[in-house]
Structures
1.
Amino acid sequence: MVDQIANAINISQKSGQELVIASSICPAYATDSSGKPTYTDLTDDLSPNILVHIENLPKAVENLNCLGVRAKYQVLMADTECDLLPFLHKLNLSPDQFIARVQTTVDKINDLGIPTQRFLDYFGNEAFYQKYNSVFDKLIYLYENDDSERRKIDTNYQLRKPLIKTLLGDVSEREGVLHLIRQQAQYTTYASLLRSRFEGRLIAVNHQTPNFVAMNHKLARVRTDADFKKGNFLPVIPLIELNIRTLPQ
């Protein structure tokens, strides 16, 4: 990881462009008294998990700038659960209401002087979902045709089962696995689009999640379908995983 971060800094320095440190943050879901998300409501405030990002990363960027490394910080807030209708029904929110609350949180972070946008606003709905649909189809194909990939996804599903149950309620294992694949496709899409803007001079920040790791070590690194068959991948994106709790149990 140190080597990967050093390489990103080196690329940034050589290109004369800023190093980009980008936090991907979940919306401000309701939490219990310990700060653990319950996913019983969506607030428009700054949740404990959001505060971990915005209270620590700007300081790191400031330190880099003091050391002569031109760097900037960008917050991107995940709004892509806006089309997860069973979850929105539990929250008693329409897709538009969900987006509006996320946007209010985004505005509050912007008011602190930290550049922040929603995923779909930053990348554009059409660009995001065009890439997402392609990746989702590829992941489904791998799950149904590659025993090794199926085992990895099934293992990941067992780890994420409490969260998926909280989001969707009592669903079948097949529906739960499809949701997990949906999450992986979202992470892959996010990283691929982010990479396309900041190739080589990017450090991603997220909570601890096997979804990002799985994406980072395979699908988001593929240059073309032909390269995929040859096993020709791009370098991994340097990833800082913060000690943030996202599982409800």
2.
Amino acid sequence: MSETAASACHTEHALLVLLGQYAQHLGLIKALMAVPLHQQTRTFSPQTKVLEFLVAILAGLPHLEDLSRDGRPLDQDQAVAHAW
């Protein structure tokens, strides 16, 4: 994320942003996206769903639905979305 974009974003999930940038640096996200998963793709690919599950685990969420129903929903956080 550029310095300008970082200063324009506000997040309450800064550690997830840092972990997402680190995962990108390591090539983890590209590697996960290359894994062949034999599931249907509708709106999102199976690889994207696995990545979303990983972010939920890192955030300490007990349920996947908490990504959107939590008091500070992760699915609305643009800084986290950009980092991952």
3.
Amino acid sequence: MAITNLSDFKIYDEQFQGGMIEMLTQYDQVFNDGSAGTIRLVTDDMLGYYKREAFFQNIGSSIVSRQDTTSNAAVTPHKLSQSELVEVKLFRKIEPTDITYNSFAEIGGDPEGEGSYILGKQVAQIITLEMLNGVLKALVAAVPSTLTNDQSAATPGTIDFAMILDTIAKFGDNHSRVKAFVMHSKNWFDIQKQGLTDGFENIVNGILTAHYVPFFNRPVIVTDSASLLVSGSPNTYRVLGLTDNAATLSKIGDVRMAAQQVLGQEQLVWRTQGEYRYNISLKGFAYDTANGGINPDATALATASNWDKAVASDYDTAGVLLKCK
């Protein structure tokens, strides 16, 4: 059993105990405004494992046609039809953490107050990243082949501006619906290099924030999510071009946390544990309840057959995908 003991801390005599904790380097500013409204984080309240929403499908342009003024023949009528969008609920746990009272006493603190606060800050970030990585897995899996620009087998296959344009072009005359890109930092730095080679200025303004490639006028969100990387020789990467409301993460209630003293051991221990729930929905797709089942894990989220296109037009879906090196 893993328990935080006195030996796990740096004990200083009458010296300042630093307040810095190890911070995660993968940022979470990709929700709502940070993603130009393509990945939304909202609060919802839902019972059960799935949420279903019925909608009317587009009746199609063929309903308007040339009229033959010389005929009075019967015409086959059109009909309205409905389909449904399905979002899925995920249940996740925050595993127990044990801290001895002695360990914090020797650094001038206590596990119930300071220990819980430090742990809470870290867990909050980890929860956000888990949600982000999950929804990126689902998006990569859901985008159909008709909206995918696969350059992963090309030589050299390194991302460039032409690939990005070809990927946007998958939306044809609806290309303006692609509002933002999400990519790994490796791809972003490759784009930077091309920008420098081609003589563009002011492309690079920072790292791991929202960036703008001047002539595409779309933000690029950079995140080193494992969901965008396929390990191999060489590694290949997934770049998402997302539409408005491409993905929605709905928090179901608050994170539940519980804590208690644990007795019967060599030392007094403060134990914390928690759990939380949230839904994932993808624009234009229904989660396949038969294939995917309840409470999907990371593998199920990343399985294409678990996301069924529910709309008739590709242009009404979550976006486009580029595969590159």
4.
Amino acid sequence: MMERIQLDPSQLVDTVQQLVHEGNVRRLVIKQGDHTLVEIPLTVGVVGAVFAPTLAAVGAIAALISDCSIEIERGEPAPAPPALSDESGKPLAS
């Protein structure tokens, strides 16, 4: 599923940080008009120092562009684990 957000370049870094922390984002595409400026693939393990250089690049891009949008590819939510029950079918106490 792709979602597109139109935003001001001054909001770009904060928005990218917020999307990364959501955890269900697979890929971000930063565009100016119809031109793709950067595609950022995200994985579950992307955090902290690993993401810092990418975030610095996003900040540099934000300083150079006049209008931008972010396309967000979200992953499917994980299915809920099945409820545990005993042999008679009664739920186990947690």
